[in-house]
Amino acid sequence: MVPQQRATRGPAPMPVRDPVIDLARFFCLTLVVVGHTMMVSPVLHADGTVTSENTLGNEHWFEPVVWVLQIMPLFFVAGGITGLQSWRRLRARGGSAFDFMQMRLLRLIRPAAVLLAVMFTGLSLALLSGVDPQVIQLLTSGAGMPLWFLAAYLAAQLNLPWLAGLHARAPWLTLAGLISLVVTVDCLRGVLPQLAYLNMVFVWCAVQQLGFIVADTRGPKPGGLALFGLMVACNLLLGLLVLLGLYSGNMLVNLNPPNLTLVLLGISQAAALQLFRPVLSRIASLAWVGRLVGVAGSRSMTVYLWHLPLLGAMSGVLLLTDFPQPAGGSAAWWWGRPLVLMTVIALLLPVVALFGRLENRPTSSGPSPSRPAAAVLLAAVAVFVPAVQAALNGLTLGLLGGGAGCFALAVVLLGRIPARLMSPAERSGGPEPPLPHPPLSANVEP
Question: What's the gap between Cα 279 and its chain centre?
Fold first, then answer.
């Protein structure tokens, strides 16, 4: 059908990236990097021991601020918007759910595999050179914190094809079912604490489903007053749950494992994205903003994975020098934060130049069959086994090495993307056939 369409209608226009989604992702990534520079504060005590303090998280005034700036749900809303279109476009080219899983896994785990390998090698050499094991463990656990997002995002994306099918049949019922699972787990987590980690899947799949609804809403769009009312209602309900003592008012505490508060924030942020879309669209239309967002977006996973390890390594090296170490939260500490941020950005530039290309899909130059479903599933298991272990028991140096090996095995199992699954635009810069569904105003993820 697709060739016939192209023959009779001529080349279809290329899908237009939604600059608002790109700008929202750039904002989220920037906020994460800036926020971490204000949180990481290793302390060298008089007895030689080293501890790490979350300076910003320990400030009482920060709780209402993080309520507004906890933008992790917005990441998943954006992932739902773009992921739904990517899946439909792949399906229109004859791709299957396992092809989609292969693409998503390769895009995310290739950069992560290299990060784990470099961290394991560097920290092992540091341990052999005499660095205290306590410092090694501190750097390992701290630098590995971004990996929880990778596991959660992968879990949501790998479930996307069948959740998209449920969405096509009953969008609101599917969302309600996922939220019901979140509430059920929250009710049982007091009896079975380990059960709370199921919400690493249920919460983020529910928030991703919000992206489906935003992207696929047909008919009249909600007005500004309705969107504002939805934002207010979600935050009032969230405040009531906090006042009743059912959840913490600290959204950093609510993040891992996640709970219903993140779903309510996701609804509020999805409404805010639509409410402020006209303003964001004007900002994104500026030429210099578009160039900046485009460059950063193409290497966003590399920036996300590497910024905290680089920050931890820099902080650890400074502890070995006579460089002034102001107490966390002091005026001197706050005045030093811009310098820390600029240093992290400077360290990120060569890392992005060296490893950024790993975010590109490895594509077969000639015809090749799709990977067997068993290989894709085995690769997913190889990724999630160390990720789940780290989430439950914390990241150690041994698990870091094992995780690097498992991720590398997954990359080998996944192989390369068959050329037929790539769009004509991706292969040769030409146009590609239209979607079989009404077009979505969202960007196609690379």
Answer: 24
